[in-house]
Fold:
Amino acid sequence: MVNPFALSLENVEKYFPPAASGWRALLHPFSGLTVPALRGISLQVKQGEVLALVGANGAGKSTLLRILTTLLIPTRGRAQVCGFDVAREPAKVRLQIGYHTGGDACFYSRLTARENLLLFAGLNNISGAEASRRIAELTSPFGLGDLLDRQARTLSTGNIHRLGLARAMLHRPSVLILDEPTRSLDPLAAAEFRRFLLRSIVGVHGTTMIFASHTLAEVEQLAGRIAVLDGGRLIACDTLASVKAAARAETLEGSLEILTRGAPRETQ
Amino acid sequence: MSRRPQSGSTHRKLLLLFLRDLAVARSYRGAFVIEFFQALLGSASFYFLSRFVESPTLQKALPSGSNYFSFALVGIAFFDYLSTALVTFDSSLQEARQNGTLENLLVTQTSLPVILAGSSLYPFVLMSLRTAIYLGWGAVLFGFPLQGVNWLGAVLVLAASILAFSGLGILSASYLLIFKRGNPVNWAILGVSSVVGGMMYPVSVLPAWLQWVARLVPVTYSMEGMRAAILGHASLWELFPSIAVLLLFAAILLPISFAIFSWALRRTKITGTLTHF
Structure:
């Protein structure tokens, strides 16, 4: 039976140990998991859908994305990607996902763009000839064709992000996971990157996309649905129009203010 | 829409990781030249040190036919394999954390043990090149004896040593995964091995109780085997005890270190500290 959901989370909770340093860290290296980061998150994302995660810093967006990438193990609950459990079947999950974060440094700076892509293609079990073919196929619409033989350290931040996206798409993932993809871009480069996402990814490959962002214009432009996180809780997950209607606000910004003002907050 | 994982060839991934490190190293061209001449300076300093310390008492403790220069040169050149094994897994992790590639590596279809193994290949190959240059300078300029060396035996002792040392290196990387810095595993292993392992002097000059401790560290057997193959022209049969003990160390250390490493990796995914440093 075909799984209709690309992503499925059932009552996912994530707790971290308290931050410790100095003697406390030395004496208690294995503290209990007492600091909540995600609490009772349940949501589904259909194949081909684009979901944006919004919320203040520390709301749990990156934690949620890292659970979906298998970089974190949930404390409780179940998270699945294309029907595969992130905790029990991480290798199968990693085959389904492409992951890119908005950081500037995510490549081997002394290698060329092509060498970087060939390395990651190989680590994703793509043969050399096939990797070269896919790199040519992907980098042309990404506008990276002429830059492939330049060292990564010589590329602009915008081009590094395009390269990161190309890397995430190399093995043709079913689900694209982006953590603040335009975080380090200037406004013009960010707008161009969004246009590029719309033109080349969303709705073109049928790829499901989940991304975290603080840029509300980006969220409105790209997302079919919006998940609002606050203090580790999911307080809304709906279309832009429905989120605004539920908050009785004119704008997404106003909706977030209203929705997060009423939500119970974590006190530590 | 969902697909099954393919079994990618591990040796191809190991080669890719080796080529990555080679390409990065090639971009710093001057480093190779410096390495070449650094080995000359190292060989020269051991040669002059040996002329200073050689005495009839010392000569009696050395393997027959060798002098202190060749004894120390083999000791220092091959002890560095232990240092390399101990730091290479740590530094691969640290580098990936610092250059921001760790998360991207971990979401590929390649397991972390394969990534670490692949990342250790270049340092070991570089180490071998460096050792060859050390011995080469020693032979050309300072009379290091290369006639009658059992090269096959030396390679077998080296391979068994690398396997045994890698078990210790993976233990060290496990510590780093959990505690991030200040690695006492490295410090303890290197410290004890350098005192009792026979790097600069024969184990026979140690007090009896330290000779007993020396039997518990793999580098002792590595040093004995290497010197027997290179300086003592020992046959494969004569090298067999050293190789067998090193393989026994590997057979014990590798499964234990992999189990501890797996536990440490899972722990960091629970605590969210995988990419912290």
Q: What stands out?
A: The beta strands of chain A are 5-16, 35-46, 50-54, 76-81, 84-85, 97-101, 175-179, 208-212, 225-230, 233-238. Chain A has a mean pLDDT of 86.
